Amino acid sequence: MPAPTSEVAAPLEASQAFLRSMESRRTIRHFSPEPIDLELVRNAVATAATAPSGANIQPWRFVVVTDAERKRRIREGAEEEERAFYEGRHDEWHEALAPLGTDPNKPHLTQAPVLIVVFEVHKGGRNPKPYYVKESVGIAVGLLLASLHQAGLATLTHTPSPMRFLNEILGRPANERPFVVIPVGHPASGATVPDLGRKPLEDVIVWPDDDRMS
User: Which DSSP category does 204 fall into?
Assistant: First the structure.
């Protein structure tokens, strides 16, 4: 017997609503210093921690930074690495970044009320050997970003390279490796984002078993 129409519609409507919400997500580079509810951050990290991981080792750590002095030190360390990174890149790299308006200056690291520094946790101490670490942590970060967006918060994914200075500033052991820094907050008044498009769905989805595509 076919399922009642309402039972079919409810999941589809929920799926479409989530799609519309995520289509509105944008990376923000100018944050308001306005404080945010840290319970939203806690919930987002709890959501991220539900991610699947290789052998269920859950090789992630989410360090939540709100202290102004720590954020200042993180910004200084990041900008030092970024200057060397930008200066060492070829013209092709600069051309790719031009539409985004990025440069070695990272004011968002001190403007945002919260930074979430995500670490990969590797074998060491009481931590067992993890499997598929980057894949696992990447999935968790995707859930983290989605949860923060659903809570009405703006984010940016920042990866200064190299990032080992974060271990010292945040007192993390050597077996934890920085994966990404995520400023979290509300957009600053007048903040804008680049007018960037996304690839059409037809360019990114493939149905090899669908006769309609043959």
Answer: H
pTM higher than 0.85: yes
The answer to whether 166 touches 117, Cβ cutoff 8 Å, is yes
Residue of 48, 25, 189, 21 lying closest to 116 (CA atoms): 48
What are 127-159's pLDDT values in tens digits? Answer: 999 999 999 999 999 999 999 999 999 999 999
Per-residue tokens: 109: 């690291």
DSSP 158-200: B--SS-THHHHHHT--TTEEEEEEEEEE-BPTT----------
Take residue 35 and report the two structure tokens written for it. 């404080």
Answer whether 88's CB lies under 8 Å from 199's CB: no
Each as own residue / partner, the long-range contacts of residues 194-197 (CB below 8 Å, 24 or more positions apart, any chain) are 194/99, 194/100, 194/101, 196/99, 196/100
Q: Which domains does the chain have, with CATH numbers?
A: 27-188 (3.40.109.10)
In sequence order, the β-bridge partners of residue 177 are 120
Q: Which of 136, 130, 104 has its CA nearest to residue 118?
A: 136
Checking if the pLDDT of 1 tops 60, the result is no
